[in-house]
């Protein structure tokens, strides 16, 4: 699941519910043990609730979705660079595909890590040099010592990744927050557009504060200051408790419901849903909260008109995290762009519609490669 401002509160409420259910089961067992609740029914009910709290995923997951032909797995490369940054963070950068291939740098969204690109790595690395990296604090990249999780910091990190990509101009592909990072990169390092950067691919992302382009944006904007921000600041302090809550919701299966609603459309496989759920549980709530707070300050509306390289905008037709209207706005203001809508597709269409996603990315990258070598 991608953690965006609009769904952070919903995830938090589901986690609180998981704590409440477990507490209720333990209370029933205790009262039965003390003799306050008499009968085998209460013993069985308490045991079922407690057991469900720690193993419900094994029941709910098969009920939600069927297995697919090729399920995603954690796939890491043996070709790795570790980039040390001035703020103390260390970036994990991995390389797939032929060294002389057109380089594509994939920046993942907020919540998972670079293993979310399982299908893209398999389907694109036969002809392209696919480069993935873990955002600081996620996956195998360590978090900055100064707790700077701003989009500007990540854009400067991306510039360091570009520098180690070789001599060929790269194509920057970003999903969700990864696309936001790409847009900020274009503002901070405009001189690299056309020379070091041959093109952009913006996937299910936005050009401004995500609360303005998500579902129920009017309500979410009103809740940002009085509710969302206090909860996020609380999470940065009490993150170990929130992490335990996250894992409890993972084991009881309720996390799959939030993943399903926020990212998929119902055509995903059992393995895709399970993989996305596990990636969601792995991210530190403290890191996720700081990055989410940073998104509130994001606005690259004025940057769009200055981007002078080809841009492919991709969005899921029913994405609720960054509604298609955001992609349509970017398409209208980017000088050289095209828009593709994946149907059916939500915020995780890159996984749910992975074959179609890889085909359109491959076609666009091949076109950028031809343009970069043309006289």
From TrEMBL:
One of its GO terms (molecular function) is hydrolase activity. Pfam families: Abhydrolase_1 (PF00561). The chain crosses the membrane at residues 39-59, 231-251. Keywords: Hydrolase, Membrane, Transmembrane, Transmembrane helix. The keyword NADP does not apply. GO terms for cellular component: membrane. Residues 103-208, 306-352 form the AB hydrolase-1 domain. It comes from the Bacteria. This is Alpha/beta hydrolase. It comes from Aphanothece hegewaldii CCALA 016.
